[in-house]
Amino acid sequence: MSDRHTVDTIDSDALDALYDRLERAGHAVRENYRACESLLEQLETETRAKHRAVAARDMANEGMEAARNRAEQAEAELERMRDLLRSENDRANKAIERETVLEGEIEAQRAVIVRVRRFALRWATLRTHDSAELNGTEQPTT
User: Fold this and answer.
1) Per residue in 13-36, pLDDT tens?
2) Is 27 helix (H, G, I), strand (E, B) or coil?
3) What pTM, to 2 d.p., does this model score?
4) 106 vs 109: CA distance, rounded Å
5) Please, are residues 132 and 138 in contact by the beta-carbon 8 Å criterion?
């Protein structure tokens, strides 16, 4: 025979014990349900936090990529400016060299002008002197 009661064999104490057992089981089920709800809320909160973290990471990666691109563009621009400055510096150095050459040529031309003036003065003096001898008069020399 089993320990299970039937409608004919159950007494008041056994029925009270079954109701107590049923109430405890219901209480345990409600506690488990609340615990599951709490775990579900925690899971949803953590999932939202994870999604926010992933979105923040993606934004940070995009920002870093954009910053990297800007840095590469700035480096390229700096290199272009360096090349331009080198080119301008070379042009300036060549202009200075050309200026030095031209200054030397100017000094040489001034020396030629001085020699030509001296020669013209001597020639004018000789011509005046020769002309005076031909006319029979002497001209004072300067």
Assistant:
1) 988 998 999 999 999 999 999 999
2) helix
3) 0.45
4) 5
5) yes
